[in-house]
Every structure is written in structure tokens, then in C-alpha cells.
């Protein structure tokens, strides 16, 4: 095993916080980086932000001195409103940072409707711009900013120069288990050429471990090979969607989920539901399936069908303009 996917310390200066994205454990992480100052990398969703605040308080690190967004997707930035509100109650403020390209996307979050037309997405203001090669100094621990578009046009990665730990957000895709890697072409700003350029840039970086927003710290040989694996996964996943387009299957989540599992050899991990209401609904659904002789759904299977393959489909459509 060459990954740490449990909440807690992943190196001397970094703590993984599982914010329970969509009410599920093990799929969404933010990272607390500590020098004499503290930095939170991403801040999750609005609905799960209280979980992040509680975790930071337990670590005696609330509010963090700084927050940096790897990019402006809702699951990386919408938690900021709650985090700021809670900090203000303590009479404190947070230095919030993102790339130049992220600022307008944060100030107008209406484009997030591509993920959920009924979703509540609040605009985010008062964010400070950080640029390529800029260094964030946590009073002794330095983090270098790297522009890494592809997954999103505003995406950045951050290199912890002391620990040689690279925070890559969603650039490489979602690796939710040792054999559960799916590609990163999410809507609405996927750019294939930029993705290849960002991979080329990261190949020049000296790193020993990689932190993924989805999910965990990867180290050892797996970390060294992860960039190549991400490219292979992207190219194979793209071919699946090209084939689905030819077959008229772009709107068929069952077909797409089965294709991803077969072609990418995805083995869905067992995920735990964190909300009693979700556990009740899943149990109720599976009672009905058993009554008609069908296999019960797992949490991972539902996540793959209901979210991942649909979002990948939207990313494919927006790039292909279809």
C-alpha cells in the first residue's frame, strides 16, 4: 500500500481532513499545512463546511491563517462562506487566495449550474490573487504555486518544498482506491492540450508524494508513476466517451459505468455513508431491489452512476461542443 487515505497526519506538516463530500467518507479531502502560520488547501462544500470547521478546532487550528483554492469548482470553494462566518464570530479574518484566472469565476459562480441546475452556489469575493512561481511563506515553511490548467482553466498545484509534497487538486483525476482511478475531464472548462502541458510541467518537479483532493496522499513508486498513470487513464477514459457518442450512449449512466469499470479496470471501494438519512434511503432502495431479485446497490456504484459518469459526460460534451 502506497497511499494514506485516512484522516490525520500524512507528514510532519500536513493533516488530511475528510469533509464527507455528498455525505460519503473517503471521497473529498482538504489539507491543513502548518508552519508557524497555517494554510488550508481548499475548503470543501457549503453543506460539509461545519465538519471542516470542527476538525480544525480539534486541531487547534481554527481559523486557519490562510486558505488557497486549487480551483473554483464548488466542492473546493463553496465552504468558504461558513468558514469565514465562523472566523468572524471569533473576531478573526482569513487570507483567501486563488489564481488570477479563478478570481472572476469565484465572483460569479452561476456557471456551477452545470453540476446541479438546482444547486445553491454563492459568489465568492475578497480573494487575493497568486501567480505562477509565487511562494507562500508560512513563516518557515514555503509553498510554491504552479499554474496547472486542464481540469479547469484556473487550476493551480502547490509544492511543499520542505516535504517535497505536491498538492494537485483534481488535475490528475479521482483516485478513490488503489484500483479506482477515473479521469479528470470535468465541465465546464476541460482543456486537453492544457492538461498535457500541466503534466509536462509537473514531470520537471522534484517531489516524493502527491496529495489528491479525491483522495489521499500517494507516495513511493506509485507517486513517481502517477503522472503517467493519469495520462493513460485520461486517454482510455476519453476513448470510452468517444465510443459512447458513436453508439448514442452518452446519456446512459449504466453503460458508461460498466465501460469505465471494464476498460479502466476500476474496482469500486466500499464507502461509508455519514448521514443517517442517506443510510435509510439506501437500505430502503435495496430492500426493493432484493424483493425483485436484483443485486443491492453499493455506495460506490451509486456514486459512479449518479455523479462521476454524468460529470465526465458533461466535460466531454463541453470540450467537443455537443
Summarize this entry quickly:
By secondary structure, the protein is of the alpha+beta class. The chain has helices at 49-58, 74-77, 80-89, 102-107, 192-202, 220-247, 253-263, 276-291, 299-320; strands spanning 3-4, 8-11, 14-18, 29-34, 38-41, 66-68, 95-99, 128-130, 135-137, 142-147, 156-160, 165-167, 174-175, 181-182, 209-212, 216-219.
Structure in words:
The chain has one domain: Ribonuclease Z/Hydroxyacylglutathione hydrolase-like (Metallo-beta-lactamase, Chain A). α1 packs across α3, α6 crosses α7 and α7 crosses α9. The model has no long low-confidence stretch (mean pLDDT 94). A 7-stranded mixed beta sheet has the order 1-16-15-12-11-10-9. Helices cover 37% and strands 19% of the residues. The N and C termini lie far apart (41 Å). The chain is an alpha+beta fold.
**Rg estimate, integer Å:** 19 Å
**What structural category do the secondary elements indicate?**
alpha+beta
Task: List the strand order in the largest sheet.
Answer: 1-16-15-12-11-10-9
> What's the CATH class, please?
Alpha Beta
Task: Work out the count of structural domains.
Answer: 1
**Helix proportion range:** 25-40%
CATH superfamily: Ribonuclease Z/Hydroxyacylglutathione hydrolase-like
Q: Which term fits the overall shape?
A: globular
Distance between the termini: 41 Å
Which labels suit this protein?
322 residues, 7-stranded mixed beta sheet, Metallo-beta-lactamase, Chain A, alpha+beta
Topology:
Layout: E1 3-4, E2 8-11, E3 14-18, E4 29-34, E5 38-41, H1 49-58, E6 66-68, H2 74-77, H3 80-89, E7 95-99, H4 102-107, E8 128-130, E9 135-137, E10 142-147, E11 156-160, E12 165-167, E13 174-175, E14 181-182, H5 192-202, E15 209-212, E16 216-219, H6 220-247, H7 253-263, H8 276-291, H9 299-320
Parallel strand pairs: 5-6, 6-7, 7-8, 12-15
Antiparallel strand pairs: 1-16, 2-3, 3-4, 4-5, 9-10, 10-11, 11-12, 13-14, 15-16
Amino acid at each position: 500500500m502506497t497511499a494514506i487515505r485516512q484522516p490525520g497526519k500524512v507528514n510532519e506538516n500536513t493533516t488530511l481532513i475528510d469533509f464527507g463530500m455528498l455525505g460519503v467518507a473517503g471521497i473529498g479531502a482538504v489539507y491543513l499545512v502548518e508552519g508557524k502560520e497555517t494554510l488550508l488547501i481548499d475548503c470543501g462544500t457549503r453543506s460539509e463546511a461545519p465538519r471542516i470547521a470542527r476538525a480544525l478546532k480539534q486541531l487547534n487550528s481554527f481559523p486557519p491563517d490562510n486558505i488557497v483554492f486549487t480551483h473554483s469548482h464548488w466542492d473546493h470553494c463553496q465552504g468558504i462562506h461558513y468558514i469565514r462566518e465562523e472566523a468572524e464570530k471569533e473576531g478573526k479574518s482569513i487570507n483567501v487566495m486563488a489564481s488570477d484566472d479563478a478570481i472572476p469565476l469565484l465572483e460569479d459562480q452561476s456557471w456551477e449550474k452545470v453540476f446541479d441546475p438546482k444547486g445553491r452556489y454563492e459568489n465568492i469575493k475578497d480573494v487575493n490573487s497568486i501567480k505562477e512561481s509565487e511562494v507562500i511563506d508560512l513563516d518557515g515553511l514555503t509553498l510554491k504555486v504552479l499554474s496547472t490548467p486542464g481540469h479547469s482553466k484556473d487550476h493551480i498545484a502547490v509544492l511543499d518544498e520542505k516535504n517535497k509534497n505536491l498538492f494537485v487538486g483534481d488535475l490528475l483525476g479521482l483516485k478513490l482506491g488503489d484500483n479506482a482511478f477515473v479521469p479528470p475531464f470535468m465541465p465546464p472548462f476541460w482543456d486537453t492540450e492544457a492538461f498535457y502541458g500541466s503534466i509536462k510541467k509537473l514531470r520537471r518537479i522534484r517531489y516524493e508524494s502527491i496529495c489528491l483532493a479525491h483522495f489521499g496522499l500517494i507516495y513511493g513508486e506509485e507517486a513517481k508513476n502517477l503522472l503517467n498513470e493519469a495520462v493513460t487513464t485520461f486517454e482510455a477514459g476519453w476513448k470510452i466517451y468517444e465510443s459512447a457518442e458513436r453508439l448514442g450512449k452518452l446519456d446512459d449512466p449504466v453503460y458508461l459505468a460498466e465501460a469505465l469499470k471494464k476498460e479502466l479496470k476500476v474496482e469500486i471501494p466500499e464507502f461509508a455513508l455519514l448521514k443517517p438519512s442517506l443510510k435509510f434511503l439506501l437500505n430502503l432502495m435495496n430492500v426493493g431491489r432484493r424483493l425483485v431479485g436484483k443485486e443491492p446497490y453499493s455506495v460506490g456504484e451509486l456514486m459512479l452512476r449518479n455523479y462521476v459518469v454524468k460529470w465526465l459526460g458533461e466535460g466531454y460534451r463541453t470540450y467537443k461542443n455537443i
